[in-house]
User: Fold peroxidase from Eriobotrya japonica.
Amino acid sequence: DCSVDGCDASVIVASTANNKAEKDHPDNLSLAGDGFDTVIKAKAAVDGVPQCKNKVSCADILALATRDVIGLSGGPSYSVELGRLDGLSSTSTSVNGKLPKSTFNLNQLNSLFASHGLSQADMVALSGAHTLGFSHCNQFSNRIYSNPVDPTLNKTYATQLQQMCPKNVDPNIAIDMDPTTPRKFDNVYFQNLVEGKGLFTSDQVLYTDSRSQPKVRTWAKNKAAFNQAFITAMTKLGRVGVKTGKNGNIRRDCSVFN
Assistant:
């Protein structure tokens, strides 16, 4: 959400007959629908309290829900800055070039994050969110079916991925980003990178590039240090492109413009 025109809950808006929304861009198809539903239900619950009606934005609820799911899955809790308004547009085309691609190298990652005022350390810390979530085979098939197989990929892991992602696989099959503790927010993502078990090129490059490797090694060993860096980076990310004044409003239904 934040990388595409700011933290404004534009990613929750549903497509209509005459507008293909941000969430239906191919790069967003692995975003879980029940996550959107949770934010929509939380908004309805808040607005069900008379003195709270139309006071809390979907953008703030999304930021709070993100914090809560991280905490519920074993990650750090942190205070969320509030006061965002909801965005007034959501288009699939606005996503183009705004999200990191799974094939990016370190320079491309740094450049994209720097455009939002985020440092290399912030980028590596935020990549650690890949300790949760899933992807689809087409995002890394180039690594497991190249000849030879991507040499930075752990051989055993590569074989497992080939078994889960045969060449004509159903494109909806979900593959965990973290093969070791996929439901737990922890620093195992970085331990995986040290072992060559980053799912994407853009994950593994954080270890293979000597400029970012020291952070990966530190956070693989020190969970508390990773948690602190993650909180710092999430707080900075949460300030990106925030809408205020007439650039936004408070949506009545998170999935529909007022």
